[in-house]
Amino acid sequence: MTSDDIPRPGPQRAMRADVRRNRARLLAAAREMFERDGAGASLEAVARLAGVGIGTLYRHFPTRQDLLEALLADVYDGLAATGRELLVSPAPGEALTTWLRAFIVRITAFPGMAAAAAVSLRPEQPGRPEPSGARRAVRDAGEALFRRAQDAGDVPADAEFADALRLAGAIAMVTERDPEAADRLLALAAAGLAPGKGAHGG
Amino acid sequence: MTSDDIPRPGPQRAMRADVRRNRARLLAAAREMFERDGAGASLEAVARLAGVGIGTLYRHFPTRQDLLEALLADVYDGLAATGRELLVSPAPGEALTTWLRAFIVRITAFPGMAAAAAVSLRPEQPGRPEPSGARRAVRDAGEALFRRAQDAGDVPADAEFADALRLAGAIAMVTERDPEAADRLLALAAAGLAPGKGAHGG
């Protein structure tokens, strides 16, 4: 137990509530600014909109990617819940593509979000920190749908979930401003671009 | 005929040769710097390596995207030639995926090149300048392979070439540093991620 975990009376708890409130305000402000100006929006403007100083922003989120990860964590939690609901669907292949469509829609809430998600969901590499709970949850939920579709024969037996997720992320990145194109590209990747000659075709 | 087209003796022709040489040097220097530092490499460093001033660089290439387009034009010309060669292949669907694989490999010569290609190959929009000859050539060559594969029944009848090219571009963007992943993702998109349940499946 570190000294931070020791419960303290009044003043300390009040400060903690402030910290939490600042964090929530920063996230709401970031979402608003990013939706307007994209993921490269001014962090000064985010802090200003949240009513805090830029130093407070950096104490909560040392890098822009940290701020993006915090916004993505909410998205991941939502997608994990959606994935768990879809696990009871009677059509496993359809449930997987429905989930991948939701993944694409939700990681394109603002320009640059899909690129941040691609960084965030990259497979673990030596030296990288452990994935957050939300990152693990979204991958576990997607992978469960994927395995189920594979067991049902709707997805090629030699396909990998990580590749399917990366493909969906790639579609999100190039169709950020064009949801109809995202649907078309996902449908094309789902059905197969050249199924007559694909490795798993036939 | 503008005054620039009037043939002139000695000095003027010499200057023109200089202009051409500077352009060629700038392109070679840009390729070298971009391969080292990515598409965001310092343009000052490119000019320095080419042995010209930054003003000369900007006279040839007013924006970074113009410089990238000039490098891409060579790639597009090569891909157009490859596409024409593949038109005689006895396996139309395979020829298409071979060409898309070449497309992915060649637009990932340096980090950021695939993103520049995505901008460059975006479908025409009102107000945008006409595509260059190389851009038209690469699309025509790819589309000819695509139609041939479609006629052979290797590609779904309702698929669009622009979407296939965009999907390949998306794969290139997310796998820039990882050619094996590019191959896996293209194979997955070609065979179909969920062909059992896809719109064209069966």
Describe the structure.
2 copies of one chain form a homodimer. The first copy, chain A, is an all-alpha fold and 202 residues long. Chain A folds into 2 domains: 10-62, Arc Repressor Mutant, subunit A, CATH 1.10.10; 63-191, Orthogonal Bundle (Tetracycline Repressor, domain 2), CATH 1.10.357.10. Chain A is built from 9 helices and no strands. In chain A, helix 5 (92-106) packs antiparallel against helix 9. The radius of gyration of chain A is 20 Å and the shape is elongated. The N and C termini of chain A lie far apart (60 Å). Residues 1-6 and 197-202 of chain A have low confidence and may be disordered. Chain A binds chain B through residues 91, 93-94, 96-97, 100, 118, 149, 152-156, 159-160, 163-164, 166-167, 169-171, 173-175, 181, 184-185, 187-201, and chain B through 91, 93-94, 96-97, 100, 118, 149, 152-156, 159-160, 163-164, 166-167, 169-171, 173-175, 181, 184-185, 187-201.
